[in-house]
Amino acid sequence: MKKTNSLLLPVVILGIGLLTSCAKRSDSPSSSAAATTSAMSASISGTAWTASSVNGLYSTGVTQINAVRSSDASGISLSFYGTATGTYLVDGVSSKITYTKNATTNYSATAGTIVVSSSSNGVMKGTFYCSEKNVSNANDVIYITGGTFTSKY
Description:
10-stranded antiparallel beta sheet, alpha+beta, globular
């Protein structure tokens, strides 16, 4: 039962993030935020990955950016405190990067960086990279490199 719960947790978190990201903001977005197209791409262990859908959310001090590629049910999620430009070191607590492969295999970053290069008018842009371990098999390691994102939040 513990193993099933540990596998389902990242999928549930990603799903909740996607559902809550559809919530309407209490403040009205600026015209530049409304015109911005959200996007995310990266290389996963040498293979190009591009999201088909990206949703951002800022709530209770935490920025959550969830990206999904519908063709293979994979997803990347970035989570960190704040919206300020700067470098966020991935520590698995205050800053996280997770990857879900084929909606069933979950990876969690063991080291990495999220760099927010711009953040204004409800739009954030930046880069990221990390190494991740399969939560069920520590010998299964992937590397996410060259990650870029643009997201409304």
